[in-house]
């Protein structure tokens, strides 16, 4: 009898030794990812000039510039200023995946229903899935796979259907919880894209000054640089209406 | 006296060769080792496009457009079934798409299950997938809705799914630095492993190039040993000695190694034409040593060294002459050839022939002089009683002397009949004709023609501002004009995309009136891979892409004339229009087949008359030497006409190769006859001995050469099968003409004198 008890105790001990770190690890990973989300979504709103530099395989570059306004995570307005022949074009993202496009040459904004998130976001190497405003911790199941002096490495598995990725491996800065690198793996397990982040501290927030996304198959890259970033400017919902996409001087004539 | 002095010179030269025999043998071994090592650098290039000449504007433009807009590295997997719009078929398409996307070296895959669909709706624009790959349609209604959507849209019908809904394409693009053969091999291997329920075909440049390379490699591996064994057997039966088998083959093998080694060393590549260089050299390269050996066997001398010197000095001139004329046949391709691969073939077969000749003059006497004494008298005795001499050549000689006019009449009739057959020859430059019936590539090509408007690409290049509405409107008009041709099923261009997007935004499809409107619509296209296929990076060039259906040459010419009218009327200062594509290259290639054939034959015949006339110091001899081969070539063309064998990039080589090889027989007959006639002054006796001695070498040579070439009928490519068959036929024709027609001409000429 004693022997049975001892064996049972030993069994409990051994399973707890195996299981406890797993649970702890999973909790840690979730907490870490949540911290990353919190850092990324800390400002109430932001205004910035965004420079977009596209580079193809042959090294040829194309530059774009846009004025960006963002409120919370899911209201975002881009108004392009360069190149000149596309100046005035605006895109508006609203909660629930709603998207609008304004082409000045055609007057009224058009609603775009995006059924395929794998599409490239306005010619960049970011897909609409990459630009999803939902927090990472709500979209992915994280797992801590590595830890060094400077970073935690998390493996994120999509918790939603119809993802173009089987996993994303994120390097998370240990001191400040911002991502330094994300590696995207397709459903065949092949690494297809790599994003490098350069976070800086401004006032009271950390933000990605530059993000470079490389498409490894197409050998094409997109570098997004944020300039003249201002946080918490008190943007209201009225700044994110469909009508707000149209420049003020044109609104009356369009009506 | 002159002959004697000349003979002394030649003999002294051969003595020197035999004197330096060790040096020669060592040099040959060293050179063979070095060049044999270089063969590893020889690569196969079966891409016909790369062989198109840069001085043909159509070919040059086709290559440039292919490189710039990516048409040259596009492969296609075709799935054929009873109905594409079934869930299990869609699943298979998705699996193949995912499998190809995962392959390294493939940059993009387009199929029914991953195509983007942009359509207008009540509230705006809907951007989605044509088929939701994560949630495939399953109900009858869903599948019917998909069928309706696909088959009612020009973007999909006929370009991704056939109009009858029974076949679909999965189109993939290779990255420019990908190894085509590796990727194509993986595509085939991976798709085979999926165990698809549909019938699978592969087409498109990377798949075709790889398939032809595979056929070439397997042809080489299979056919060379067969040709080798066959020639060895024929030599064994003919000479009945080890040296009679070994030395001719050794010469040929060394010549092959040298020629192929130099190809590798100089960075040339094996093409679907140069693929048969080894077999040609195996057959041709052994011939010179056969003549040297044959003469050595006939010389009765107790000293082997002296026998070799004497025999080689007799045969050196005809051997050199035969090699020069054979080389002329090969080199003549350089002047008339349209494709670079035919020119390369000419250069390296000529080079190989030169090596074989040099080896038979330098290396073979060196080796023979070191072998033990060979009793020539026994050999001669045996030879004279052999089947060839006794049963074939002796009766033939009697017949020639008895009925020269009958023989001449028979040849004349045969030639007349063949001339009537020449008019029946048709030309073919169509890729389908390269493969035998039932071949998977031929079937795929057929399917593409029947269900997807063909595989021959047609490009209309517009040079001008691609965002200028006037330029785009001309593009649109041009596309509509092209689609009125019965051989153009559909077209694709940037103008189509702009017109379609304009329709989504404004509700009215068509090219917008203002440039700034187009520039803003462009915003929606940025990053779309299709853009790179339609316009240049700087937006100063754009193409209309299409495919041409008919393999018929007249249709291609009609289409070229039809498009020329449009281009002349619509090119203006805003845009320059140019057209190219495989149909246009085919027209030039077809014209070049005739020019190449006539050009290379004329050059070869003129040079042969001059060279033979000069060396034999008699213009009539040069002229007579061409009679048998001209007769053999006429018969060859007659057979091609009556048998329906087309003149194509393989068979266009036959006449000149046949001339180069076949002229050797006449040269041996004439030089042997002249030699004896000058020595004895007795024409009948000279002719008799010529037929019995040189006739024997000629027969052995014909059997071995023709046997070697006949092996090509086991090739997996039709042009090579025909090539082998026709060369063998012309060898038989030219040898028989050299042993019957030529002696009859000589009998009649000398009877008169």
Structural summary, described in words:
The complex is a heterodimer of chains A (255) and B (753). Chain A is built from three helices and 13 strands; from the N terminus they run αββββββαβββββββα. With 255 residues, chain A is an alpha+beta fold. Chain A has one domain (32-254): Lipoprotein localisation LolA/LolB/LppX (outer membrane lipoprotein receptor (LolB), chain A, Clam), CATH 2.50.20.10. In chain A, strands 6-5-4-3-2-1-13-12-11-10-9-8-7 form a 13-stranded antiparallel beta sheet. In chain A, β10 (179-186) and β11 (191-202) form a beta hairpin. Chain A is globular and about 55 Å long. Chain A starts with a helix and ends with a helix. Residues 1-5 and 10-24 of chain A have low confidence and may be disordered. The longest helix of chain B is centred in the N-terminal third of the chain and has 35 residues, at 205-239. The mean pLDDT of chain B is 85. Chain B is an alpha+beta fold and 753 residues long. Chain B contains 25 helices and twelve strands. β6 (110-114) of chain A pairs parallel with β5 (124-129) of chain B.
